[in-house]
Amino acid sequence: MNKKTCTVLLIGRPNVGKSTLLNKILNYEVAIVSKFAQTTRDQIKGIYNDDEYQLVFLDTPGMHKGQNLLSRRLNQKAIESLKSADLILFLTPANDEFGRGDNYILNLVKETKTPTIIVLTKIDLAKDKSLMNNKIETLKKMGIKDIFGVGFDYDQSYIDLLNEIKKYAIEQEVEFEDDIFTDSSMRFLAKEIIRESALSKLYDELPHSIAVEIDDFKEQENLFEIYATIYVKKESQKGILIGKNASMIKNISIDARQKMQRIFNSRIFLNIGVKVSEDWVNDENKIKKLGY
């Protein structure tokens, strides 16, 4: 089947709203969304379909200063993804100055010669309009012409951006069926949901120490039976994650199970264990084992 199609890459610093943008356009929870930086660790693929168009969105890890092997690996994933896009969306917050990190990423984007749209995110949070206007002027001086603003409570802004993206699509054979929102498996989504639930409750204590592995994933009639392990870097972090009388891990499990029930539209049995994997963020073999 033919439609007008386009592969669209989302790139930017951590916590600029890439996952929010993807989920808003798809109207489906494909990617982790949180107020915390570096929550996306994999390239998430989301598929938008209507009668005429199939747009494939690639959400990349936020590019940041590589402080460990995992950070450097995530940055490399984002850079390599630049080669696979028909269109690049460079995201930068409207409520933040255009800094060295933005400049570095934008220069990488310009080197690809790929058509690019600048997306000013979080316009609903930009109380200081002069800061946003200065950012727009800086971008224009750099030769940027296509600049769009989006904000969580401004639904029309996402519609306008989507219509602009469609202008770059060309007619060809589609890659995915109409009812597919993502090529990520339910097993992968379960891993991400558990990690999101853990981050939302423990980010201040364990900012980048958490990894999740799905040990077993069984699909039965109207029931998913899921066994998972959350890994931390130190023995002291294990106690924080479990909590007094196992209260914290129980709250994480309840939160993750409720999200899975909504997204998978099914009953969920979820069992989460906790293990220590010493300094896994700097261990090549452990990083590979955990899927990064």
Task: Present the secondary structure layout.
Elements: E1 2-12, H1 18-26, E2 44-49, E3 53-59, H2 69-81, E4 87-93, H3 100-111, E5 116-121, H4 129-141, E6 147-149, H5 155-166, E7 170-173, H6 186-202, E8 211-220, E9 223-232, H7 235-242, H8 247-264, E10 267-276, H9 284-289
Parallel strand pairs: 1-3, 1-4, 4-5, 5-6, 9-10
Antiparallel strand pairs: 1-7, 2-3, 8-9
Helix pairs in contact: 6-8
Q: Would you write up a description of this structure?
A:
This protein is an alpha/beta fold and 292 residues long. It has two domains: 2-173, P-loop containing nucleotide triphosphate hydrolases (Rossmann fold), CATH 3.40.50.300; 186-290, 2-Layer Sandwich (GMP Synthetase, Chain A, domain 3). Helices cover 37% and strands 25% of the residues. The protein is built from nine helices and ten strands. Strands 1, 2, 3, 4, 5, 6 and 7 form a seven-stranded mixed beta sheet that branches. The chain has a three-stranded mixed beta sheet with strand order 8-9-10. The longest helix is centred in the C-terminal third of the chain and has 18 residues, at 247-264. The chain starts with a strand and ends with a helix. Belongs to the TRAFAC class TrmE-Era-EngA-EngB-Septin-like GTPase superfamily. Era GTPase family. One of its GO terms (biological process) is ribosomal small subunit assembly. GO terms for molecular function: GTP binding; GTPase activity; ribosomal small subunit binding; small ribosomal subunit rRNA binding. Residues 150-152 are annotated as: G5. It comes from Metamycoplasma salivarium (Mycoplasma salivarium).
